[in-house]
Structures
1.
Amino acid sequence: MGGLQEAVDRIMNHFQKHYHLMLLPGIIFLIVFHLVPLFGVVIAFQDFNIGLGVKKSPWIGLENFKYLFQIRDSKVIFYNTVFISSGKIIAGIIVPVTFAVLLNELRIAAFKRWVQTIVYLPHFLSWVILAGVIIDMLSMDGIVNRLIASFGGEKIMFLASNDWFPWLIIGSDTWKDFGFAAIVYLAALAGIDPTLYEAAEIDGATRFQKIRYITLPGLVPTIILLATLSIGNILNAGFDQIFNLYNPLVYPSGDIIDTYVYRVGLVQAQYGFATAVGLLKSVIGFILIIVSYRLAYQFANYRIF
Amino acid sequence: MRNAKIRAIGSVLLALALVLAACSGGGSGSKDSGSAGPSKAAAESNGDNSGNGAKEIDPYWLDEPITFTTFKHVGANAKLPEGDTVENNQYTRYLKEKSNISVKILWYASGSDFDQKSQLAIGSGDIPDVFVVDEKTFRTLAKAGQLEDLTDIYEKYASPLTKEIHASTNGRALESATIQGRLMAIPNISVQADAASMLFVRQDWLDQLNLDGPKTVADIERIAKAFVDNKLGGDNTIGLTADKLDVPMKSARHDLKGFFAAYNAYPGNWVKAGDGNVTYGSILPETKEALGKLREMYLAGLIDKEFAIRKDKDQVVISGQAGMFFGPWWSGGVLRDTYGNFPNALFKPYMIEDDSGSINNLQMPVSQRFVVVKKGFKHPEAAMVYLNNFIRAERKAEPDAAKLDTSVSTEFWPIGNPTFDYADAVERKSVILADALAGNIKPEDLIPEMKVLYDFAKADEAAPKKDLAGWARFYGYTEPAELLKLPMKSVYNEFTITTPTMDRKWANLKKLEDETFFAIVMGNKPLDEFDTFVADWKAQGGDEITSEIRKELSER
Amino acid sequence: MVQDRTLSARLWNLFLISLMALIGFSSLAPILHTAAVSLSNTAAAAGGFVTFWPRGFNIESYRKIIDDPHFFNAFWVSTKRVFVGGAINFILTVMMAYPLSRSHREFKSRHYYMWFVLFTMLFSGGMIPLYLVVKYLNMFNTLWALVLPGAVPVFNVILLMNFFRNLPKELSEAGLIDGAGPWFMLARIFVPLSLPALATVTLFSIVGHWNAFFDGLIFMRSVENYPLQTYIQQLVVQLPPEYMDSTNMDLLDKMSDKTLNAAKIMVSMIPILLIYPFLQRYFIHGIMLGSVKE
C-alpha cells in the first residue's frame, strides 16, 4: 500500500511544521530565562568575589570541586545525602501510590474529595513550623515517648540519635508531601478506562486482582516518570527540613551536602563553591536520568520521556 | 522545585558581598538650584565660593546640592505618618534643609531579605553611591578595590561632634575601618550593652525556698538543684536552659555566655590567652573546666535535657518549666509572656562572677556597621556631611532636631540608622528614666523617646503589670540596666573576620568542635575527649590558622 | 454502579474509611494546631499551651496583617499574578506537552526538544545571571518579572506530556482519518479528554504562583508591588544573627510572635483551600467512556 503510506508520510511532514510552531513560544522563554542565565555557571570555576563580578573574579578551574571532595567528612556527607534521598524517593513512590489506589477504591465521592484536599495541606506548611511540631511530639515528654513509657519501654531521645534520625527525616518528609504526589496519581487513575474494570468484573475478578492487573499497570508510566524525575534530584536531600531538625549530635547521620555548604557559607560568602556544588548536583542528576532512560529503553523498550 | 534550589543558593549567600560592576556612578550635582541656605548651627564661616585660600569647610552644609543613590534596610513594620513615604519624610526633609543633600532610594527591604537582595543587586552592578554595610561586606568590597578612600574626607569634613563620638572608643572604631593605613569607611559605634549576659532567675521560686540570688557558678548549681528537687516547674523542672556551646559577642537568650565568662572561657572567639598571644578560646583549659561543670550539671539533671534538640527555648521559660536563663538586657519580652501566663511569677537578673569576684564580659566589635562610598563617586564629602547631620540630629544637638517626632523610626533616615550613640547609651537612658520617675526631671523636658518610656513606667507604677506590653518596653532600662553599670572586666575578640585557610578549613574545624562539645556535655563522651579535640583541632588546620591570624594582627 | 454488598466488601470499605480518616486527621492536625495558635493569645502560644483549640481567643494577628495598608494591595498583585501567570502557564504547558507527546515517527525532532527541556529543568545558572537578564529586559517592578521567568513550568509540561502519551492511539488515528490537523487534535480531542491532568497542572501552577515569594522580593523595587507572600514574609521577618540586637527589638518581638507567624500561614492557605475543591470536579472517572469503540 505504498500510496497510503506516502500519503500518511506527507501529512506527517506537514504536521512537523505545526509541532515546531507549538513549541516555539515555550522554547523562546526557556532560552531567555534558563539557557541564557546559564553563563552564570562559570562562577563555579572562579574564586568569585562579588566585588569583582563575573568578569574579573580569578579563574581557579576545578579547585571548588576539589575542595568539596577534600573535606574531611565528604564521604559521610555524600553517603548521608544519598541515603536519605533514596529513602525519600522509595517511600515517595510507595506511600502516595498506595494511598491513591486505596482512596480510589472508595466510592463516596464527597469523602474522597475531602481527604484528597486535606492530605495535600501539609505541603503548605514550612519546615520551620513543622519542625517545631515534630520536636514537640518527639520530645521526652511528647506523645510518642509517653506512649512508650506507658507500655513499659524506655524513653528515647529520637532527635539526638543517629539511628533514628535519617528515618525520621524520610518519614516526616513523606508524610508532608505524599498528598502532592497522590494528586498526580489520582489524576492518572481517573484516566484509566472504566470498561476495563467492567470487563474484569464480568470475568469475576476480585478487588485485589483488579488492582493488580488494571490499576497498577495503569499507573506504571506515571510512577516511572515521577521516580525518574526524583532521581534527577538525588543530591538534594532536603535542606530546609534537615536544617530545622538537626543538631551537632546527629551530624554523623544527618549532615548532608547542603547543610555543610550552608555552614561554609557562614564563614565567608563562598559563592563560587556553592555554585560548584549546585553544578555538580545538576550534572550527577542529569547523568542518572539519562542512565534510567537508557535502562528503561534497553530492557523494557519503554521511553520514559 | 526551582524555589528550593534558589533558596539553597540564597541562604549560602547570607554572608554579604558587594559588587561594584561597571554601573555608572550615582548622579552627582543634581539639576535643581540650591535652595536658600538655612541658618547654620555650630561655628563655621559662610562658605565663600570664590577661591580665597583656606576656605572654611562647613561640616553640615554643602554649597551645591548633591543627590546620591542608596538602598537600605527598613523594618517591615516601621510606620510613617500620613502622606509620608520612604523617599519623603521628616528625616529626608530635615536633611535636605540642613545640608542640601537629597537621597535617591533605589529600593529597601528588611532582615535577611535585605541581605539577599543587596547581594544580588551588587553582584549585578547595582551598587549605590553611599550605603551602609556590615564588616564582612566592607572588607570584601575594600579588597576588590571598590571603595572610595575617605581618610582625607574625614579629616576635612568630620564635625567636632562626630570626631568626639568616634574618639570615645579610644580610636578602636576608626581603626576597625582602616585598611592598610587608609580609612575606607565611616564606622558606627556598637551599643555595648548588648554584650552583657545576665542570668534571669525566678525570684518567686527563690523566695519560696528562702534562697539568695546567685553570684557564682556554684550558686547556680545549688539553686538549679533546689528548683529541680522541689519540682517548682512541675515534674520536668528545668534548672537552667542552654543553647549553643560557644560564646557569641552579642549576648543571646539561652546562650551560656555568662556561665563561660565566669570561668574566663570564651569558646568560639580569638582572645588573648595567659601568655599574651591571641589564641582560639575553645582550646584553652578554661573552656575545658567550664565544659566539665556543664557536664556535671547536665548529668545531674539540672540543665535542660533536650537543649541540643529544642529549637524554641523560650517556650520552656514561658511555660513556667524553667527557673533560670541567660540573656541580654532586653529580654523583657520573654518575661512579659511568662507573666502573661503566670501572674505571680517574678524574675530578677543577676550577673555572675568568676572565682576572683570579677564580672567578665566579652565585648562586641566596636563597630558593626560601616558607611561606605562607591569608588569614583564624585562627591564623597556628601557622605561625611550627611553623617555629621545625622549624628548631630540624633544627639539632639541642634534645635530643629529636637522637633523631630521620635515615634517615627530612625530607619527612615535616608541611608538607615547605624547607631552612632555613646557606647553606654543604655545606661545613660536608665539614669534619665530613674531621674524622671524620681521627679528630678520634668516630663515635659524629656525627649519624645524617653517620654514614651516614662509614660509606660508611670502607668506601671499605678497598676503594676497591668499593661504587660508597655511594661516590657521600659523594663530593660530598669533592673537590667542597673547591672550594666557594675564594673566589668572587658575582654575582646581580637579577630572577627576570616583568613584564607579559615575559608577552607573552618567549617570542618567548627563541626569537630560542635560535635565534641555537645557529646561531652551530654555525657556521650568523657571530659578528657577535650584533649583529643585540641590535638585534632591543631593538626587539622588550627595551628595554621592561628599563625595566620597572629601574623595579620601584628601587621595591622 | 453495582455495589458489592458482601460482608467482606463492607468490612473492607469500613477499614478503608477508617484508615483514610486517620490519615486525613494526621494531615489536618498541624493545620488545626496552626489555626488555633493564630487565634490565641501570644503568651499562651509562646508557652506552648495551645494544642487544637485557641487559648485566649483573639484575632489580633489577623488584624495586624489585614490592617496593614499594603495587605490588600499585595493581595491584588498576587491575584493578578495568578491569573496572568496561570493563563500563560496553561497555554504554554498544553502547547508544549502535545508535540512532545508525539512519537518519534510522528515528530522527528521530539528527542532534541525533550532533552533540551529536561536540561533546563536540572541546570541553573544561579540567581545573579537571572537577575541580570530580568534587569536587562527592563522588567523590574513589573508584573512581567513575576510571570515570565517561570512562564514554562517544565515539570508540569512533562506531566501533561506523559498523560497525553497514555491516551489511546486510536484517538489520534481516528482524528487523522477525519482530517484533523494538529491544532484541532489538540484543542478538540486531547484537551477535553485530559481534564484530570489539566486540573492537576493548573492546580500546581496556581499554587506555585500563589506561594512564590522570592522572585517578588528580588525583582520588585517597592512594597507597593510586592505580591502577597513576599509582603507577608517580610512582615514576619526572619532576622539573621547580625540584626539580632536591641536596635531591632520591635522586629525581634515580631519574629518570635507565634500567633502572627501562624496567621500568616493561614492567610496563605485559605485561597488554595477555596480553589482546590473547585478543581476537584475535574478529577472525573470515566472521562474516556464512549470515546473509543473497540
2.
Amino acid sequence: MAETFGRGAMTNHWIDIRNADCIMVIGSNAAENHPISFKWVTKAMERGAKLISVDPRFTRTSSKADIYAPMRSGCDIAFIGGMINYILNDMENNPGSYNMEYVTQYTNAAFIVNSEFKFTDGLFGEVKDGKYTAAAKNTWKYADTKTPATDPTLKDPNCVFQLLKKHFSRYDADTVCNITGTPKDVYIEVCQTYAATGQKGKAGTIMYAMGTTQHTYGTQNIRGYAILQLLLANMGVAGGGINALRGTSNVQGSTDMCLLEHILPGYLNVPVEGDTDLDTYIKRTGKHVDATITPQGLAGDKSSNWWGNSKKYVVSLLKAWYGDAATRDNDFCFHYLPKSARATVNYTHIGMFEAMGEGKIKGLWSWGQNPAVGGPNSNGEREALGNLDWLVVADIWMTETAEFWKRPGINPTGINTEVFVLPAACSYEKEGSISNSGRWAQWRYKAVEPPGEAKPDLEIMNLVMMKLKELYEADSAAPGREAITDLVWDYGEINADMVAREVNGYDLTTGKLVYLFTKLKDDGTTTSGNWLYCNQYTEEQGNKLKRRDPIDNTSKQIGLYSKWSWCWPYNRRIIYNRASVDLNGNPWDEEHAVTYWMGEAWAPQGDLSDDKGGDVLDGGWPAINYAKEGEKYLPFIMNPEGVARIWGYGRAEGPVPEVYEPWESPLDRNLMSGTQTNPCAFIGKYRNERGIPDQYPYVGTTYRCTEHWQTGIMTRNLPWLVELMPEMYVEMDEELAAEKGIKAGDKVIVSGARGEVRAVAVVTKRFQPLQVGGKTIHHIGVLNHWGYSGMAKGDSGNILTPHVGDANTTIPEYKTFLCNVRRA
Amino acid sequence: MEQEVERYKWIKMEQEVERYRKPTRILHWFNGGAFIILFFTGLILFIPSLGFLAVDSWTRILHRIGAVIIVAGPLIYLLTNWKASWKGLKEAFVWGKDDLEWLKAAPRYYFLCDEEAMPPQEHMNTGQKLWWLMVIVMGVVIGVSGLIMWVFKTTAPAALLQWSIFAHDVAFIALGAMFFVHVFLSVIHPLMRPLRTGAWSSMARGKVSAEYAKAHHRKWYDRVSKGMKESPSADE
Amino acid sequence: MAKAILYDAIKCTACRACQVACKGWNQLPAEETTNRGTYENPPDLSFQTWLKIKFTEVKRNGKMDWLFTRQACMHCTDASCVKVCPTGALYYHELGFVAYDKDLCSGCGYCADFCPFNVPRSDSNLWTGVAKMDKCVFCTTPGLDRIAEGYEPACVKTCPTGALTFGDRDELVVVGGERVQALQANGHPNAYFYGDKELGGLHVMYVLGDSPDVYGLPVDPKVPAAAIAWKDVIQPIGWAVGGLALLGLGINYIIAREAKLRRELPGRKEE
C-alpha cells in the first residue's frame, strides 16, 4: 500500500466498515480472527450490504457471506486480476457505471509511461541474481519523471490505463478460473457484485489479512486490491478503502514505532551504507522536497509531496534521542545511527534465521515473540537457535523459544546456548497505549500487579538501557560508545506518560509540547519521537489517547467518533479523504459524506465541532476548483506525484501484479506465463528442502482459529480456551479423507519436505476439491497455534512451512506449501 | 366400663393354629419396614410443602436402600421357599364365586360387625387376596419403573423415563391408599381383635387362636384341623 | 415487565465468546475435552457447561452452509421443569424466566427427564446417588446476580456481533419478527422465529435461518404429556384417593366400633 498511496496502513477504520455497500473479505477470515470487526460487518449487512468471502475454505466468515468463492491458496493475483479485467472491459462499455472522473484525476491512470516498457512471458525486463536490473526498473517509470504528461481521455497506448488493459487482457474468466479452481458462475457473480461499487455513491471495501500478505508475492497481492479499489473509486470514501486487518492487537503500534528493519519511527527510511550524511540520506530515500513530481494536464496541478518534509521529522527524531549533543554542526548526530547493509544483507525474520543457521549471529533477544512456533520452517529455526551463544526471552509465559533447548527429541547437552528468561507483565498489569489496525491509539490502564518478578516491558527496557549507559560510560575504549553515552535517557522511574509526551515532541524554544507535525522543524528547535504521533499529547487537551467521548459528530453519522481516542495522522480517521469529494469539493456520496466544501472552507474538522462536522482533511487546502492556479493540491498527499499509483513502479518485481505460482506448487508450470515463481522472491537456503508434487501432492495452508491466539502460548495455558479447542488439528475435505481412510477425529500425520506434524483430523464439507489446470487439487488446512510448551501441547503447523519470503518484505510464505497426509 | 375391660382381657387358649411360617413373617416385616421407608421418602416428593426434606438427596439415598430391600426380599424368599411361593402366588390369582359373596357381605360385616353375614373364608379372605394381588401387580410396576428411573436415568429415552415416573406415581397412590386399609384392618378394626390372638398375632407370632381361625377363616380351619379335637373355650 | 434474550443465528459467527463468558461469570471450571473431529466442544451440556454453541454443516443445492445455534436453557413461560420440581428449587423469576435455588435441589432429576429441550444436567455420584442439577439461570445466581443489578446476562454483554440482545420480551418479539421477515425477503426464505409462542413463549428466542429441525431443535415443543398426566391428573386424584381412604377408614372405625359394642352388650342402647 505504501507503493500505491505513499504510506501503508489501514486506510479507513473498523467502524467505517458499517458504511460499505459491499465488503469483500479475501485473504482474511475476519469473523474468526478479528471477531470484533464483525460487529461492523454485521451492521453493514443489516443496511443491505453484500458480503463476499474468498477463501480456499468455507470459514465462519463464509457462513455469513452472500457469496462464497472458493479459491486455490496463492491465487489472489489471478482472482483479482480477472476482476480488474472484467472492470476495465465494463468501463469501456458502461463508463457511466463508474467514476471516471476519479480514475482520471486522482490516480495515475492517465500518466504516460516510458515507451521502453516491455512485458514478456511473465517478466517485466531483465532479472539478475534475483533482482530486476536498474535499467529494467527505469522502463517502469513515467516517460517524464519530473513533469509527467497525462492523457485524461485514457486512450494513449502508453498511458497507464491502456497498459493495464493490455496486461490484464490475459485474465479472462476461463483462464482465471482454471488457475484458481473457482466455479465460473460464482466468479462472475463476484465480479458483478463488487464492480457495482464503482458507481458514484457506492462504496466497497476490502478486508484482508495474513492470507494475502503471507506469500512470496504478498505485496503484489495487495497491489492488486489497490488497483481494484482505485478503478472503483473506493479510496478515501466512507465504507471504502483497503482495510488491512493487522495480525495482532498492537502490531500497528509496533510498526508505527519502527520495530521493523527497514524503518525509523513514523515510517521514515532506515539509513544505509552509502548515506554519508543527513542530506545524502534524505535525497537517497526520495523523501525530499526535490522529489516532487508535477503531473501535466490534470485539474490538480500541485503535489504536496508530503514526504518531502521528512528532514524535519528525522531531525526532530534525532533531537529527541540525542538532545543537546545533536547540533547542526554534527548533522544532529546522524552518524550515530547504524547504517544498514540491507542492499546485500537480509535483516528480516527469515534473513536473520538464515544467518543464525550459518552461525553468524551470537545473541538474540526474543521480546514477546515466539519464533520457535511462529516462524516458518520450525525445525530449521529451532536448530538455528542452537547456534546462538546467548538468548534472552522476555515473555509472560515460558515459551517454546525459551525451552527450545529441551524440546522433544533433542539432547540438551548438545546445545551451548545460554538462555535468560525475563518474566514480563501482561497487558492488564501495566499502563500504556495500543494502536489498532485503524491507526487509532488508545490509552490502557493497569488493573492488577504483575505476579512475582514480572515487569512491564518499559521497565525492563529502562533497566537495560541504564545499565548499558553505565557500562559504556565506564569503558572509554568501547567502539561507537557515544551512540549510547550521548543518548538522552533521563526518565528515572519511567512511566508511559513521559514516553508519550516525548513521542509527541516538544518545542525546545518554549519548552511546551508541539501541537502538530506541521510545526516540526529541521533546524534542531523541535523534538519528536515519532512525527506521526505528534498531536497525540497537547498542552490544551493533554493525553488525547485517554479520550472516551462516544459522540458521532459527523453530519451524516458515518461513525468517525473523533473524540474517542486519537488516531494518526492528526486524528484523521479516513486517510486520502480529499478523494472523497469531486473537484468542486462535493462528496461523491452525499449519504456518507466524509467532508464537504462549504464555499469558503471545509466542514468543521474532526473534534473541532460537536455536530455537522466531517473528518480532518488530508491537507486543508481548498477544493481543487476553488484553489488558485499552481495551488490546486492533488488528493494523495504522500505520493510525490500527488495521485494514487495504479501503476506502482517502485516495487521489486513489477509495476503491476502478475500471476506466479508459490514456491511449492501442485502445478509443474504457471498457467499464465513461462515464469513459474516470483523471480525476486527471497529463497532461504538453511535447512530449506523443497517439496515436489509427486511426493507431496496436496496444498497445505496454515491459519488460525478464534479460540487460540498466535503461537498459543497465552491461550494454551487457559483452561476455558483449551476446553474449546483442545488439540492440534488439521482440516481436509471428505473426498481426500475417504481416499486415505481417515475419519473425523482420527489421528493423522501431515508431512512435508521439511518435517512432519501429528494432528487430529477434522473432516469437513467446508473444503472442496478444486479443478485446477486439469488436476484435482485438495487443500489441507493446518493450524499454527500449538507447540511443545504450556498446558495443552501439540505439534507446530510451521514445521511444514518453507523458509521463503515476499520479494519486498520477506514475509514468509506461510499460506501455500506442499504436503501429504496419512493415518497415524 | 368394667364389663368391657373384662371382655377384652387376654384369654389364653391351649390351642393355637399356625397361619404364617417364619420365613413368610420375616419377609413381611422386612418388606413392610422397607415399604414404610419408601412410602414416606416418596410422600415428601408428593406433598410440595414437605419437599424441602428431600434437599441434598438424603431421602433418595434412604429410598434406594428401601428399594433394594423390598426387591431383594421377595427374590431371596422365592429362591429359598419355592413351594410356599408357588402356593402363595396361586392364592392371589385364583378367583371364584366365593369372592363375589364376600363382596356382597363386606359392608354389613365391616361396618355393622355382622359376623353371621360373612360366608366362610379360605386361608386368605377376598379382601386379603385383593391386597395381595395389588401388592404383586403394583409392586412390579413400581419396582420396574423405579429401576428405570434409577439405573437408566441417563440412558433411557426421555418418554420412557417420563412415563415411568407417571406409573411410579400411580402405583404409589394405589399402594399407599391400600396400605392404610391394610394397617387399619390388621390392627385397628374391632373385628380383628384381640391383638394377642388375632390378625396381629398371625403375622407377629405366626399363630392365631383356634377361635379366631374358626371365626375368620372357617374353610381353612376346617381343612387344617380335620380330625383334631376342640378344646373348650372360655366363650362357651 | 418480562425480560428475554434474543439470539440471531444469522449474525452469530460462533466465536464462542458467550460460552467462555458464561463460564467466567458463573465460575464454572473447564472440562477436559478432546477434538472429536469437530469444532464443537464440550460434546454436551453438563452441570459445568451451561451454554454451548452447536455447529451443523449442510449442503443445499450444492451451496455450502454452516449453521450455528446456541444450546442452553430456553427459559420457557410454561416450563416443564418448574412443573415437576418437587422441592420448588426451580421457580419462575418475577421477570418471567426460570430461576433456580440450588440449595433446594434434591437431585431427583425430574427436570432433566421432562425438559423438551433436554437442558438440565446433574452432577451425580454413581454410588451414593447424591446429585445436584445445574443449568443456565439467566445470570441470577445469588451473589452473582447480574439482572438484579440492572445488567444484561454475561453472554449478551460479550457477544461482539450483537447476535445476542437483552431487553423487554414484548419489544424483542417485535424485533425478532421483523428481522425474520427481512431475512425471508433476502436470501433466507425459510427463516423462522423460534420462541414467540412455543411453551407459552420462550424467554430465550431465536432468529433462525431455516426451520428448527435443521438446527436440531424440536419444531413444536410441548410440555410432555406424561407431565400433564402426572401433575395435573394423577396428582389431584392421588390426594382424593388418599383422603377418601383415610376418611372412609375413620368412618368405618366409628361405625364398626359402635356396632360391635351394641352386639356384645345388648343393653347398651339404654345408657
